[in-house]
Write a structure and sequence with these properties.
This protein has seven helices and seven strands, in the order αβαβαααβββαββα. The chain is mainly alpha-helical. It has two domains: about 10-75, no CATH class; about 80-185, Aspartate Aminotransferase, domain 1 (Alpha-Beta Complex). The strands form three sheets. It has a three-stranded antiparallel β-sheet, with helices on one face.
Length: about 190
């Protein structure tokens, strides 16, 4: 979480809510361990027992390396986590500032994630080599082909006006990516 924003679990409201809730989480976002595939579930004992039966038949076990790394992350100190969050906040701010310099691009300031979700719809209806950009899929494909930047079309999240950009990258990569996006967008007529 950035900018002093605090998130509270619904389970913290009280025992009755806690007994009727299922909390599912993992280390991917909180500890920047995307791809390690370690998650956990907290619920009343009967739900956990039944979920364990289902999970045991539908997925395989995570690697021992992932398990050990997750234990280390979960036991990490607050100072280490704060340092990581501060670094991601700097990256978020850099990406956001670069994006907002692109004319007609609008972007909400994320309070906790590795992603921005800017609105690029002002570029819909524009063309490159007689091919019109009509939606987020076409714009993402155009930026991949002409800018050599991979973005996720917003339609995958129900928001076709937007593209998802990750800032889980170095500052140089972030700046270079936005520069490539800007140069590619300048090709549109």
């Amino acid at each position: 979480m950035f900018d002093g924003f605090e998130q509270h679990s619904i389970c913290s409201i009280g025992k009755e809510v806690q007994n009727n809730s299922i909390l599912i989480n993992g280390v991917s976002k909180s500890y920047a361990m995307t791809g390690w595939r370690i998650g956990y579930l907290a619920a009343n004992e009967e739900i956990v027992k039944q979920a364990g039966k289902l999970q045991g038949q539908s997925t395989s076990n995570p690697t021992s390396i992932s398990q050990i790394a997750s234990i280390t992350a979960l036991n990490d100190t607050e100072a280490d986590i704060r340092q990581m969050v501060d670094e991601f906040q700097k990256r978020r701010d850099t990406l956001l500032n670069c994006l907002l310099k692109i004319p007609f691009v609008e972007c909400y300031k994320p309070v906790g994630s590795f992603y921005t979700f800017p609105d690029f719809s002002a570029f819909y209806g524009k063309s490159f080599k007689e091919k019109e950009i009509e939606d987020s899929i076409q714009l993402a494909n155009f930026l991949l082909e002409e800018g050599k930047v991979a973005l996720v079309p917003g339609i995958a999240f129900g928001a076709d006006r937007n593209l998802r950009l990750s800032f889980a990258a170095s500052m140089d990569t972030i700046k270079q990516g936005v520069d490539r996006i800007t140069k590619a967008l300048d090709l549109l007529e």
